[in-house]
Amino acid sequence: MALPAHATIGERIWHYAFRIIVGVIFFFLLFPILTIIPLSFNSGEFLHYPLMGLSLKWYHSFLASGAWALAIENSLIVGVSSMVLATILGTVAAVGINRADFPGKQMLIALLISPMMVPLVITALALYLFYAPIGLNDTYIGIILAHTILGMPFVLITVSATLQGFDYNLIRAGASLGASPLRVFFKIVMPNIAPGIVSGALFAFAISLDEVVVVLFVAGPSHRTLPRQMFSGIREHLSPTFLAAATILIVVAVMLMLTLEFLRKRNEKFSTPPTGADAG
Amino acid sequence: MAGQVTQNMSLRQKLRRAERRKKIGAIGLITPLFLVMLIFYFIPIGIMLYRSVDNSEMSEILPHTAKAIQSWSGKGLPDESVYAAIVADMKKAYPDRTLARVGRRLNFDKVGFYSLLLKSGRKVAKLQGPPYKDALIKIDKKWGDHTYWTVLKRGLQNTTWLYLLASLDLRYDDNNRIVKVPDEQAIYLAILGRTIYISASVTILCLLIGFPIAYFMATTSTRTRNILMILLLLVFWTSLLVRTLSWIVVLQNKGVVNSILMSLGLISKPLELVFNRIGVYIAMTHVLLPFMVLPLYSVMRGVPPSYVRAARSLGATPIVAFFKVYVPQTRAGIGAGSLMVFIQALGYYITPALVGGPKDQMLSYFVAFFVNERVNWSMASALGVLLLVLTGSFYLLFGRRVNVANIKLG
Fold first, then answer.
1. At what angle do helices B188-219 and B331-346 cross, to 10 degrees?
2. Which of A32, A93, A102, B218 is 20 to 30 A removed from A186 (C-alpha atoms)?
3. Minimum distance, in Å, between the CA of residue A251 and any CA atom of chain B
4. Region B372-380: what's the mean pLDDT?
5. Are residues A213 and B209, on separate chains, in Cβ contact within 8 Å?
């Protein structure tokens, strides 16, 4: 979209004005996130500029406080467990879905990915009512299963996407050479769809790490996760410790995103790229 | 000939068998996930739907009354047997502390029932023997008012529409007819309207600021596009709570925005930018913008530039060419992005709860409110049903051609 040599003055003005508009919008997108990172290193306890000096004390108070440490631990327990469960269940089901056509397949897929679209508060309330009589509220198992449900659709979709580029003749070749179905799965299918599985797993982990509504309903004080701990404090006593926590979460998000982009690029190299969107 | 036919048959049979085996294998692989989802997702949602109308608890606590009141026609006062039944039930339920639960539920239908039941429950223990009718009316003359008995009869049925009606600002009147609640008590339709209004406003804001950047990204050089895509995905991946927290810090009275505006001399005292509707619009637009940009961008990538060029060479002004030729070709992206933003906005809870004021809360907030503050699961479920129906109907109306899965994955 370079400016052609014959552009009129009006076109020239619009060309630059449009770039300024786009710049302003991206500024709007990044500005709040970039604002809080320096503030988390502030030696004063105010949440505004100018900085009083640089210090790591809020990171220290974040990592040293019992409540935050518990929240980190809980987030890791819940995140990793639900990620593993969602990845196993989602991968196996994705292989099944892509293996054969059967009546009602589209309907089934729509049902399986519905947790993505149903408002979180409904999932939260439904699980809370379901857990109450069977004693699963205020337990790790309850939260882990809830997050498994929320993360699983992402695994299902990413694995299905890589399976679409997968050559099923490889399975036949493996079987004809005498490998058992299980051996074919682990030696042939798995290595080929690994990028999809890893992407799905990372999505499931990120969903769990960010989720607060369901935790708000079904978790007790001793099972508070990181976002839950942040939620309860934000309106009451917002301190720079929260900004330290937020900065760490931003770093985690950047790492997750870069890993996923790497996997996506790699996957595109190995399979035929879909038309229309190369990086979307 | 005959041998060939049987051979063909058996080949076809073999093929069919192999197909069937494949199908069974596929279903077998899906089953574990489906079972987990059935137990931990679909059944719970079914329970929520059921909870919004379930009233069986009442006849369990007041079993004799529930039975005896069936014979009452609804006109005048019930006879002695019904009074005897409720005295018997209260004598048991009051010390069990279950009477308060009944009272709370009936109070939802008719204010005053809670105190009536607790007061009577305390006093019936001293009643000696029948007749009870006059004795109860002596304890409280409300027992001689047939409207309370109408409410009680309605309240002892195993299902109730009370909560679903309440979620639409409707109630029963003294003659068992469905009527609107008085204006000063009506709140839920206003909340429903507010939920739709905020969601629609956020969708329009997202479209207005998402369209230019999607267009720029779709038409610029690969290098710039990749950088912008990474920046967009960075925002997309940053935790919702972190982004909401950032806006509170940025928009507060002493926040960056206010201090810049004040140091420029544009304002003399800080603007109220957060804990009100402005904050909700800003934060929600920020959070939901990627869901608008990503589908728009992927559609725009497929729009050939030749049509706009053709329009320009035929004499259309740039503005006409853009709106008449370019925009219609991006309709699929506009539709998909708007639907994604709108439907997600309908269910938003965390962001409005943190950056909004009391008048900016949406349906989800009240679902949580009735669970956590009021411990009224029936009303929470009824509002949940309302939200589910609202989201589901928009999705069914417009969602056919939208690939939700791809957009959600960024």
1. 140
2. A102
3. 9
4. 89
5. no
Q: In this model, does residue B18 exceed pLDDT 80?
A: yes
Secondary structure tally for chain A: helices H, strands E: 12, 0
Contact partners, residue B223, CB within 8 Å, separation at least 6: none
| Confidence grade of residue A270 (pLDDT, cut at 50, 70, 90) | low
Mean pLDDT of B322-326: 91
Which positions in chain B touch A123 (Cβ < 8 Å)?
A: 41, 44-45
> What is the number of residues in chain B?
410
Q: Is B125 helix (H, G, I), strand (E, B) or coil?
A: coil
pLDDT at A262: 87
Flag if A100 and B22 touch (Cβ within 8 Å).
yes
Nearest by CB to A120, from B228, B349, B406: name it.
B349
Query: Which one of B47, B221, B239, B361 makes the best mutation probe of the A interface by having the most chain A beta carbons within 10 Å?
Result: B239
**Is-contact B329 B302, C-beta < 8 A?**
no
Q: Check residue B383 and give its pLDDT.
A: 96
Dihedral over alpha carbons A227, A231, A237, A240 (to 10 degrees):
30
Distances (CA, A) of B111 to A70, B105, B151: 44, 10, 11
Write the DSSP string, A140-182.
Answer: HHHHHHHHHHHHHHHHHHHHHHHHHT--THHHHHHHHTT--HH
The alpha-carbon gap from A277 to the nearest alpha carbon of chain B, in Å, equals 5
Residue A42: strand pairing partners:
A54
CATH of domain B189-408: 1.10.3720.10
How far is the C-alpha of A148 from the C-alpha of A79, rounded, in Å?
Answer: 9
Residue B336 has a CB neighbour count (10 Å cut-off) of 25
Find, among B366, B253, B261, B371, the residue nearest to A238 by Cα.
B253
Residue of B nearest to A11 (CA): B318
- ipTM surpasses 0.85: yes
Contact between A209 and B239 (Cβ < 8 Å): yes
CB B280 within 8 A of CB B359: no
Which residues numbered 106-165 in A keep a CB inside 8 Å of some CB on B? 108, 111-113, 115-130, 145-146, 148-149, 152-154, 156-158
CA B84/CA B88 separation, integer angstroms = 6
In this complex, do A121 and B384 lie within 8 Å of one another by their Cβ atoms? yes
**More confident: B395 or A280:** B395
Q: How is chain B split into domains, by residue range? A: 1-44, 57-158, 189-408
Yes or no: domain A66-270 corresponds to CATH 2.60.40.1180: no
Residue B380 C-beta-side C-alpha neighbours within 13 Å: 25
CB contacts, 8 Å: B391 with chain A = 117-119
Secondary structure of residue B89 in the 3-state scheme: helix
8 Å CB contact between B172 and B154: yes
Say how far apart CA B63 and CA B56 lie, in whole Å.
10
B39-64: average pLDDT: 92
